[in-house]
């Protein structure tokens, strides 16, 4: 095996702990083949923690968006009404309602009684 330029390839290693967990990036490594990269990833990673699955991806096959493509992700129309802000204000409003001072007439009206 020669040590010429381009002999080693860069790989990215992703794994997930269980069948239901998502894949997460763990580390990068260099290896001459994808098969050897898998063996190296298993040796370096699987002995440290339980792993359900591993992905080995050659870095040159990962595609990222260019600046022009990122700009195309912006919304073309103004539809802010679709983005709900939630109902967080209701808790505060309910608290204010509960804190109101109730007068005696109002309390008695709930019971259907009259003040003597």
Textual characterization of the structure:
By secondary structure, this protein is of the alpha+beta class. Strand 1 (9-16) and strand 2 form a beta hairpin. It has a domain at 9-62: Phenylacetic acid degradation B (Ubiquitin-like (UB roll)). The longest helix is centred in the middle third of the chain and has 13 residues, at 34-46. The protein has helices at residues 34-46, 67-71, 89-99, 104-111; strands at 9-16, 24-31, 53-58. The protein has a three-stranded antiparallel beta sheet, covered by helices on one side. The model has no long low-confidence stretch (mean pLDDT 80).
The secondary structure category is alpha+beta
User: DSSP helix count?
Assistant: 4
Architecture of the domain at 9-62 in CATH?
Roll
Rg measurement, Å: 31 Å
Spatial strand order of the main sheet = 2-1-3
- What's the main sheet like? 3 strands, antiparallel
Organism: Shouchella hunanensis
InterPro entries: PaaB (IPR009359), PaaB_sf (IPR038693)
Protein name: 1,2-phenylacetyl-CoA epoxidase subunit B
Features:
alpha+beta, 116 residues, 3-stranded antiparallel β-sheet, 19% strand, Ubiquitin-like (UB roll)
Any chance you could write out the topology, listing elements then pairs?
Elements lengths: L8 E8 L7 E8 L2 H13 L6 E6 L8 H5 L17 H11 L4 H8 L5
Antiparallel strand pairs: 1-2, 1-3
Structure described in brief:
The protein has helices spanning 34-46, 67-71, 89-99, 104-111, and strands at 9-16, 24-31, 53-58. It has 116 residues and is of the alpha+beta class. It has a domain at 9-62: Phenylacetic acid degradation B (Ubiquitin-like (UB roll)), CATH 3.10.20.520.
